[in-house]
Amino acid sequence: MKRLLVISAVLVVIPAAAATTLRERTVVGPVSTVGITGVEVGYADEYRPRCHEVRRWDTATRADVRVATHCFASTSTGSGVAGVSVAGGRELWLTYIGGNTREWSLWTKRGTARAKRIAFEAADVDGPAPIVLGRAWDEALPYTVGNRIAVLAPDGSRKFSLDASQPVSALTAHSRGYAAVLADGTVLTISLTGRPLGVTTPDSGGAQSAVLAAPGLIVETVAGLEIHRGAAVTRIGLPAGARWLGYSEDIVAYAAGRQLRLRRLASGKDVLFRTLAPRFDAQLGRRGLAYASGRTLGFAAWATVSASV
Q1: Please, are residues 279 and 291 in contact by the beta-carbon 8 Å criterion?
Q2: How large is the average pLDDT for residues 201-205?
Protein backbone atom coordinates (compact mmCIF):
# COMPACT_ATOMS: atom_id res chain seq x y z
CA MET A 1 0.00 0.00 0.00
CA LYS A 2 1.48 3.30 -1.03
CA ARG A 3 1.52 6.08 1.50
CA LEU A 4 1.10 9.72 0.53
CA LEU A 5 3.21 12.18 2.45
CA VAL A 6 1.38 15.47 2.89
CA ILE A 7 3.77 18.38 3.26
CA SER A 8 3.05 22.00 3.93
CA ALA A 9 5.63 24.67 4.58
CA VAL A 10 4.83 27.28 7.19
CA LEU A 11 6.91 30.28 8.24
CA VAL A 12 6.39 31.08 11.91
CA VAL A 13 7.55 34.33 13.48
CA ILE A 14 9.49 33.77 16.71
CA PRO A 15 9.54 36.55 19.32
CA ALA A 16 13.12 37.83 19.36
CA ALA A 17 15.15 40.98 18.93
CA ALA A 18 15.34 40.29 15.20
CA ALA A 19 12.70 38.59 13.06
CA THR A 20 13.49 34.90 12.55
CA THR A 21 11.67 31.97 10.99
CA LEU A 22 11.38 28.22 11.36
CA ARG A 23 10.18 25.45 9.09
CA GLU A 24 7.12 23.33 9.80
CA ARG A 25 5.59 20.43 7.87
CA THR A 26 2.35 18.49 8.14
CA VAL A 27 2.65 14.70 7.86
CA VAL A 28 -0.02 12.03 7.40
CA GLY A 29 -0.26 10.63 10.92
CA PRO A 30 0.47 11.85 14.44
CA VAL A 31 4.18 11.80 15.26
CA SER A 32 5.05 9.68 18.30
CA THR A 33 8.76 10.47 18.68
CA VAL A 34 11.47 12.65 17.17
CA GLY A 35 15.27 12.83 17.34
CA ILE A 36 17.86 15.16 15.80
CA THR A 37 21.58 15.02 15.05
CA GLY A 38 23.09 17.78 12.95
CA VAL A 39 20.52 18.60 10.26
CA GLU A 40 19.03 15.07 10.20
CA VAL A 41 15.68 14.56 11.90
CA GLY A 42 14.42 11.05 12.59
CA TYR A 43 10.77 10.56 13.46
CA ALA A 44 7.97 7.99 13.61
CA ASP A 45 4.31 8.56 12.79
CA GLU A 46 1.17 6.41 12.87
CA TYR A 47 -0.10 6.71 9.32
CA ARG A 48 -3.02 4.32 9.94
CA PRO A 49 -4.24 2.50 13.08
CA ARG A 50 -1.41 0.37 14.56
CA CYS A 51 0.81 0.99 11.52
CA HIS A 52 3.87 3.16 12.08
CA GLU A 53 6.57 4.43 9.77
CA VAL A 54 10.07 5.40 10.79
CA ARG A 55 11.33 8.21 8.56
CA ARG A 56 14.36 10.48 8.14
CA TRP A 57 14.09 14.13 7.15
CA ASP A 58 17.25 15.82 5.88
CA THR A 59 16.52 19.46 6.61
CA ALA A 60 19.43 20.61 4.42
CA THR A 61 18.21 18.93 1.22
CA ARG A 62 14.54 18.72 2.38
CA ALA A 63 14.48 15.06 1.38
CA ASP A 64 12.18 12.85 3.46
CA VAL A 65 12.66 9.08 3.15
CA ARG A 66 10.93 6.07 4.62
CA VAL A 67 13.28 3.93 6.70
CA ALA A 68 10.94 1.17 7.89
CA THR A 69 7.29 0.24 8.45
CA HIS A 70 5.88 -1.63 11.45
CA CYS A 71 2.25 -2.84 11.69
CA PHE A 72 1.26 -4.40 15.01
CA ALA A 73 -1.59 -6.62 16.16
CA SER A 74 -4.02 -5.19 18.71
CA THR A 75 -2.74 -5.70 22.26
CA SER A 76 -4.10 -4.83 25.69
CA THR A 77 -1.24 -2.45 26.59
CA GLY A 78 -0.48 -1.03 23.17
CA SER A 79 2.34 -1.02 20.68
CA GLY A 80 4.39 1.49 18.73
CA VAL A 81 7.74 3.17 18.22
CA ALA A 82 9.19 4.36 21.52
CA GLY A 83 12.20 6.29 20.23
CA VAL A 84 14.24 7.23 17.17
CA SER A 85 17.81 8.46 16.81
CA VAL A 86 19.77 9.28 13.66
CA ALA A 87 23.35 10.17 12.75
CA GLY A 88 25.28 10.09 9.49
CA GLY A 89 22.40 8.54 7.56
CA ARG A 90 22.00 5.64 10.03
CA GLU A 91 18.89 5.34 12.12
CA LEU A 92 18.24 3.45 15.36
CA TRP A 93 14.72 2.95 16.64
CA LEU A 94 12.95 1.11 19.45
CA THR A 95 9.59 -0.68 19.10
CA TYR A 96 7.36 -2.36 21.69
CA ILE A 97 4.33 -4.66 21.64
CA GLY A 98 2.54 -6.84 24.15
CA GLY A 99 0.13 -7.32 27.01
CA ASN A 100 1.31 -8.00 30.57
CA THR A 101 4.65 -8.98 29.07
CA ARG A 102 5.98 -6.38 26.66
CA GLU A 103 8.42 -7.26 23.89
CA TRP A 104 11.04 -4.65 23.03
CA SER A 105 13.08 -4.62 19.80
CA LEU A 106 15.93 -2.35 18.75
CA TRP A 107 16.40 -1.87 15.01
CA THR A 108 18.90 -0.15 12.75
CA LYS A 109 19.25 0.69 9.07
CA ARG A 110 21.35 2.83 6.77
CA GLY A 111 20.73 3.60 3.10
CA THR A 112 19.04 0.88 1.06
CA ALA A 113 20.04 -2.01 3.33
CA ARG A 114 17.34 -4.04 5.05
CA ALA A 115 16.34 -3.03 8.56
CA LYS A 116 18.16 -5.22 11.10
CA ARG A 117 17.04 -6.07 14.61
CA ILE A 118 20.08 -5.87 16.89
CA ALA A 119 18.45 -6.48 20.28
CA PHE A 120 15.29 -8.13 21.66
CA GLU A 121 14.12 -8.29 25.27
CA ALA A 122 10.83 -9.09 27.02
CA ALA A 123 9.84 -7.51 30.33
CA ASP A 124 6.85 -6.93 32.59
CA VAL A 125 4.75 -4.06 31.29
CA ASP A 126 4.94 -2.25 34.63
CA GLY A 127 8.73 -2.50 34.84
CA PRO A 128 11.41 -0.32 33.24
CA ALA A 129 12.23 -0.81 29.57
CA PRO A 130 15.04 -3.38 29.25
CA ILE A 131 16.41 -1.58 26.17
CA VAL A 132 17.17 2.14 26.25
CA LEU A 133 17.75 4.18 23.11
CA GLY A 134 20.23 6.95 23.88
CA ARG A 135 20.38 10.45 22.43
CA ALA A 136 22.77 10.61 19.49
CA TRP A 137 25.41 13.30 18.97
CA ASP A 138 27.51 13.88 15.84
CA GLU A 139 28.56 10.36 14.74
CA ALA A 140 27.65 8.46 17.91
CA LEU A 141 24.48 6.38 18.33
CA PRO A 142 24.33 5.04 21.91
CA TYR A 143 21.99 2.42 23.36
CA THR A 144 21.79 0.02 26.28
CA VAL A 145 20.51 -3.50 26.83
CA GLY A 146 20.26 -4.06 30.57
CA ASN A 147 23.68 -3.17 32.02
CA ARG A 148 25.49 -3.22 28.67
CA ILE A 149 26.21 0.18 27.10
CA ALA A 150 27.12 0.25 23.41
CA VAL A 151 27.76 2.99 20.85
CA LEU A 152 27.43 2.54 17.09
CA ALA A 153 29.11 4.61 14.37
CA PRO A 154 27.13 5.60 11.26
CA ASP A 155 28.83 2.82 9.25
CA GLY A 156 27.42 0.25 11.69
CA SER A 157 30.69 -0.55 13.45
CA ARG A 158 30.79 -0.47 17.24
CA LYS A 159 32.75 2.39 18.75
CA PHE A 160 32.88 0.67 22.13
CA SER A 161 30.83 -1.25 24.67
CA LEU A 162 31.08 -1.65 28.43
CA ASP A 163 29.08 -3.01 31.34
CA ALA A 164 27.66 -0.64 33.95
CA SER A 165 27.21 -1.79 37.55
CA GLN A 166 23.41 -1.49 37.23
CA PRO A 167 20.73 -1.28 34.52
CA VAL A 168 20.66 2.06 32.68
CA SER A 169 17.51 4.20 32.55
CA ALA A 170 18.77 7.07 30.32
CA LEU A 171 21.82 7.61 28.11
CA THR A 172 23.09 10.68 26.25
CA ALA A 173 26.02 11.31 23.92
CA HIS A 174 27.40 14.85 23.79
CA SER A 175 30.50 16.90 23.05
CA ARG A 176 32.56 15.78 26.08
CA GLY A 177 31.46 12.15 26.31
CA TYR A 178 28.55 10.05 27.54
CA ALA A 179 26.29 10.23 30.59
CA ALA A 180 24.37 7.13 31.71
CA VAL A 181 21.73 7.37 34.43
CA LEU A 182 21.81 4.19 36.51
CA ALA A 183 18.88 2.47 38.24
CA ASP A 184 19.75 4.03 41.62
CA GLY A 185 19.67 7.59 40.19
CA THR A 186 23.43 8.11 40.03
CA VAL A 187 25.20 9.10 36.80
CA LEU A 188 28.07 7.21 35.20
CA THR A 189 30.22 9.44 32.96
CA ILE A 190 32.21 7.94 30.09
CA SER A 191 34.88 9.48 27.87
CA LEU A 192 34.51 9.79 24.10
CA THR A 193 36.72 6.71 23.75
CA GLY A 194 34.68 4.60 26.16
CA ARG A 195 36.72 4.96 29.36
CA PRO A 196 34.63 5.21 32.58
CA LEU A 197 35.31 8.55 34.27
CA GLY A 198 33.35 8.23 37.51
CA VAL A 199 29.95 8.11 39.19
CA THR A 200 28.14 11.27 40.34
CA THR A 201 25.34 11.39 42.94
CA PRO A 202 22.97 14.35 42.40
CA ASP A 203 22.27 16.60 45.37
CA SER A 204 18.51 16.86 44.76
CA GLY A 205 17.31 13.27 44.45
CA GLY A 206 17.89 10.78 41.66
CA ALA A 207 18.87 11.80 38.16
CA GLN A 208 16.30 11.56 35.37
CA SER A 209 18.68 12.40 32.53
CA ALA A 210 22.14 13.90 32.15
CA VAL A 211 24.61 15.24 29.60
CA LEU A 212 28.40 15.66 29.69
CA ALA A 213 29.14 18.97 27.97
CA ALA A 214 31.43 22.01 28.17
CA PRO A 215 29.92 23.47 31.38
CA GLY A 216 30.36 20.11 33.14
CA LEU A 217 27.92 17.31 33.94
CA ILE A 218 24.39 18.69 33.58
CA VAL A 219 21.90 16.55 35.50
CA GLU A 220 18.11 16.75 35.43
CA THR A 221 16.36 15.95 38.74
CA VAL A 222 12.82 16.54 39.99
CA ALA A 223 14.06 19.86 41.43
CA GLY A 224 15.49 21.16 38.15
CA LEU A 225 19.03 21.09 36.79
CA GLU A 226 22.37 20.63 38.53
CA ILE A 227 25.67 21.46 36.85
CA HIS A 228 28.55 19.50 38.40
CA ARG A 229 32.05 20.76 37.67
CA GLY A 230 34.56 19.19 40.02
CA ALA A 231 33.33 19.76 43.56
CA ALA A 232 31.25 22.79 42.56
CA VAL A 233 27.51 22.38 41.94
CA THR A 234 25.27 25.03 40.35
CA ARG A 235 21.50 24.58 40.69
CA ILE A 236 18.98 25.89 38.16
CA GLY A 237 15.28 25.72 38.95
CA LEU A 238 12.70 24.67 36.37
CA PRO A 239 8.90 24.69 36.67
CA ALA A 240 7.37 21.72 38.46
CA GLY A 241 6.84 18.85 36.07
CA ALA A 242 9.17 20.29 33.42
CA ARG A 243 10.82 17.91 30.92
CA TRP A 244 14.37 18.61 29.81
CA LEU A 245 14.71 18.39 26.00
CA GLY A 246 18.41 18.97 25.49
CA TYR A 247 21.39 21.29 25.82
CA SER A 248 23.72 22.98 23.33
CA GLU A 249 25.96 26.06 23.38
CA ASP A 250 24.69 27.51 26.69
CA ILE A 251 21.01 26.95 25.81
CA VAL A 252 18.65 24.49 27.49
CA ALA A 253 15.36 23.42 25.89
CA TYR A 254 12.58 22.14 28.12
CA ALA A 255 8.84 21.45 28.12
CA ALA A 256 6.47 23.01 30.65
CA GLY A 257 3.01 21.68 29.94
CA ARG A 258 2.26 22.66 26.33
CA GLN A 259 5.10 25.18 26.22
CA LEU A 260 8.40 24.55 24.46
CA ARG A 261 10.78 26.90 26.24
CA LEU A 262 14.43 27.93 25.91
CA ARG A 263 16.75 29.18 28.65
CA ARG A 264 20.22 30.65 28.27
CA LEU A 265 22.29 29.51 31.23
CA ALA A 266 24.73 32.44 31.38
CA SER A 267 22.08 35.17 31.53
CA GLY A 268 19.12 33.22 32.91
CA LYS A 269 16.92 34.57 30.11
CA ASP A 270 13.95 32.23 29.57
CA VAL A 271 11.56 32.51 26.60
CA LEU A 272 8.53 30.74 25.20
CA PHE A 273 9.52 29.31 21.81
CA ARG A 274 6.30 27.55 20.78
CA THR A 275 2.99 26.47 22.29
CA LEU A 276 2.24 22.94 21.12
CA ALA A 277 -0.17 20.05 21.67
CA PRO A 278 -0.09 18.16 24.97
CA ARG A 279 2.57 15.42 25.17
CA PHE A 280 4.63 16.90 22.35
CA ASP A 281 8.15 15.59 21.73
CA ALA A 282 11.26 17.65 20.95
CA GLN A 283 15.06 17.51 20.97
CA LEU A 284 17.67 20.24 20.92
CA GLY A 285 20.82 19.40 18.95
CA ARG A 286 24.06 21.09 17.96
CA ARG A 287 22.66 22.54 14.73
CA GLY A 288 19.02 23.08 15.58
CA LEU A 289 15.81 22.13 17.35
CA ALA A 290 13.33 19.49 16.15
CA TYR A 291 9.82 19.09 17.56
CA ALA A 292 6.69 17.04 16.89
CA SER A 293 3.18 18.07 17.86
CA GLY A 294 0.33 15.96 16.52
CA ARG A 295 0.77 15.89 12.74
CA THR A 296 3.13 18.85 12.80
CA LEU A 297 6.88 18.31 12.44
CA GLY A 298 9.10 21.34 12.98
CA PHE A 299 12.75 22.28 12.66
CA ALA A 300 14.50 25.49 13.71
CA ALA A 301 18.11 25.99 12.60
CA TRP A 302 20.60 26.96 15.29
CA ALA A 303 20.67 30.60 14.21
CA THR A 304 16.93 30.79 14.89
CA VAL A 305 17.25 29.07 18.26
CA SER A 306 20.15 31.27 19.38
CA ALA A 307 18.52 34.51 18.22
CA SER A 308 15.33 33.81 20.16
CA VAL A 309 16.85 33.74 23.65
Answers
A1: no
A2: 93
